[in-house]
């Protein structure tokens, strides 16, 4: 394949435009708010993201390279088809459920990151444990889509995969590093427009290629392969449901989602953003579905691609760039390439910022440096943005099974973080003992279920499991949902059991080593209290506790105006004097 100078120029122009928008947004955030809340402006955009920009950035967070490429691949692969393209419906329902049940309580309590409620209720140790699967999910997701971008660019303009991945990662990391959420949000607007325009321009040209049979006919009739509408065998129903629930429920507890929720100007706006993004995800999936259908309706021996077809060559995961390359005019394929590049960057920057936000706020500040200055937190975020961006890039270049790692880590988000989030927001009485027990039970059940992508054999063989072509046993039983439910109920049962044992005197108070039941007025609970607004705290419980002398109560809360009267309270003033 010849090297395309025009394609390279188009990509360079697109990247420079994105970088320019990101730097402009960074300048905007620098001039927004006071110096004292610079870190909050970076993490949640000063909580003034409007409906238009918010809707675009939340949609673009989900509509990434994996979403577009994966949807097209699912529709194209014989035996799967549209019936197995679960991401558009699954993620849209996830956003609807997030808006209905999770956005309002999270935004109304003034949290800064998704991990704040966990540290408020369960303490900083449990917050650190939950940071691990959350970080893994964000990092492996960024690495997987960087890897997809490298493959896409190499298909169309025939440049080195490593160079394309490194340059794309540098651009995304650079504007995220200088501008935080503002840069990510405003570049998302440009990127989503590019995705929509680039893919929709490509579809008519690809559909009118002489080697392509009418997709309406091939939807239900086998021509070049099985109909692209697909079907679900009776043996695979439980696998389909397991995967669908993973996308729908497991798509909620991601910092990338809650970062947009918490940046909204009100709880109602946060809900509306979720509904707008749900609609946006469905609309943006349409061209990807059509491209997958076109790939399934093409006589590839009549194109420059030749024989065998992409499925036989094991290039089904590249069907979208292959359709752009071989069924569209050259200049149109470059538009499509810009769309895929935009999709990748719009998700990668969100993941990098999400990981650095959780580390700077929940690990560095709340666990180790409660008296850290705002300037210090900003620099920690900048350093971790660079480190996490470099790590995701390295994994994209070096890991042979980065998609397998992402599948496993996204499973852990569903199995561990989702039930914990349900408990912390909606189940009264859960505590750290139940949270740890639920965490461990869910983790063990998921790991022992095996993972074919990582060639990990299961230790527990559920009903219906069978060996694949690599002799790795694959589960048909919905063991992921079983693990999630086990984690959820274990949390509740162990929490109430611990509460009963300590409060009834069966266990002495000294055994409450996590200060989760008996020691309600410990210093750690004072640290937990600094996470939320005053309407969530009974002030007479704070009176006996000596707060840290290096900062006042109001400086650690989100809504400083609401706490102006707290610092002037005689009771608390006497406590500080002591």
TrEMBL record:
The keyword Transmembrane is assigned to this record: yes
Keyword Transmembrane helix: yes
Keyword annotations of the record: Glycoprotein, Ion transport, Membrane, Neurotransmitter biosynthesis, Sodium, Sodium transport, Symport, Transmembrane, Transmembrane helix, Transport
Intracellular or extracellular location(s): Presynaptic cell membrane
Major location category of this protein: membrane
A GO biological-process term: acetylcholine biosynthetic process
GO CC annotation: axon; dendrite; perikaryon; presynaptic membrane
Membrane topology: Multi-pass membrane protein
Catalytic activities: choline(out) + n Na(+)(out) = choline(in) + n Na(+)(in)
Pfam families: SSF
TM helices/strands, residue ranges: 6-27, 48-68, 80-103, 129-157, 163-182, 189-207, 237-257, 269-299, 319-344, 377-399, 405-427, 439-462, 482-502
One annotated GO molecular function: choline:sodium symporter activity
Cited function: High-affinity Na(+)-coupled choline transmembrane symporter. Functions as an electrogenic, voltage-dependent transporter with variable charge/choline stoichiometry. Choline uptake and choline-induced current is also Cl(-)-dependent where Cl(-) is likely a regulatory ion rather than cotransported ion. Plays a critical role in acetylcholine (ACh) synthesis by taking up the substrate choline from the synaptic cleft into the presynaptic nerve terminals after neurotransmitter release.
Subunit structure: Homooligomerizes at cell surface. Interacts with SEC14L1; may regulate SLC5A7.
Family membership: Belongs to the sodium:solute symporter (SSF) (TC 2.A.21) family.
Protein name, per record: High affinity choline transporter 1
Originating organism: Fulmarus glacialis
Upper lineage: Eukaryota, Metazoa, Chordata, Craniata, Vertebrata
